[in-house]
Amino acid sequence: MVPDQRSVPLTRQQAQQFDVGLIPGLRDRLIAELDARHVPSHEFVLFLSHLTGRAKQTVARWIDTDHPGLPDPASLAVLSLQLDVDTGWLLGLTSHRLPFAVDRLPPHLLQQFQFSPARPAWFGAVTSKTDVASGQAVAIMHGHDMAPRILHGSPYFYDPTQNHIACNGVYVLEYLGQTIVRHVELRIGAGLLLRCENTQYGEVLVGEDVLRADDGVRVRGRVTMAINVCDF
Question: Which domain of life is it from (predicted)?
Answer without folding.
Answer: Bacteria
